[in-house]
């Protein structure tokens, strides 16, 4: 969408500005870098029970959502838990970081950079005016987060230096790891000054206007890949909640194993490891195939949805290919990488553009995967 077409206010939900869904107000809680200490997992579980529908929903930006929020007091409870450190900035604390960094693979260790950026972001009043869709990112060099299309991203090239990406593309600007946070904040401040009606850096006529002055090399194209975040990964263990939905009871089980990292692929990584049997007893899958199928909330949770997409998606069991099922053409929550696109339409679905009745969805996708 171009900046010229932005004719309404930014309605990206938060805690104070919720989204009115068919199943009640939706509140989004930002988790910079996806990092959630065990105490905050327990706090989110209590908030889901006391203020929402009892579940926590993972998002494609490594954040969480509470649905059906109907009682006052949520913001205060989240603040007490440290999940709302700067109320004025709560909708702009969108920060991704390579979840496996420092655990498995990667060129540089980017752990801690998201928290550092979050502190700098919250300390600058002007940045509270950034659009709620603006996205910061730190990629440890493997290319998992670089492929998520962040507005501004630092991607490691060596253990101590990296490239600054704008809207997913190398800008030619290189900075050290020590300067990465400062560089991203500088870009965000420049965007806040010049953005006009734009919500994303990619909507500017010339995105390079947000870069600081200085020498720049020729941009490079580097590959992107997403390494598995589900199952056993060295010492760590990753779980894939079905459709990114985690019950309050499951959150408490996750908290038994220490801090967690919510990934942009709706999985939860336990860096310190976990007893897989205990996770399975709680209904938490460690099978990577569980994460291959995602879906929007669908009907009856969303009034715009043309189908109960999650019920239909439960009939689908393809392996080795990503699938996203949407209740309407908005395609909420779809992954940024390659996937089979399934969209509800009048009694059936369009699967990669080809119509099929709802009863034939599983077979249609099976044929796509085998093709």
Automatic annotation (TrEMBL):
Keyword Transcription regulation: no
Keywords: 4Fe-4S, Heme, Iron, Iron-sulfur, Metal-binding, Oxidoreductase
Superkingdom assignment: Bacteria
GO molecular function: 4 iron, 4 sulfur cluster binding; metal ion binding; oxidoreductase activity
SUPFAM superfamilies to which the protein is assigned, alphabetical: Nitrite and sulphite reductase 4Fe-4S domain-like, Nitrite/Sulfite reductase N-terminal domain-like
Limits of the Nitrite/Sulfite reductase ferredoxin-like domain: 27-74
InterPro entries: NIR_SIR_4Fe-4S, NiRdtase/SiRdtase_haem-b_fer, Nit/Sulf_reduc_fer-like_dom_sf, NO2/SO3_Rdtase_4Fe4S_sf
Protein name per Swiss-Prot or TrEMBL: Precorrin-3B synthase
Native species: Amycolatopsis panacis
Lineage, opening ranks: Bacteria, Bacillati, Actinomycetota, Actinomycetes, Pseudonocardiales
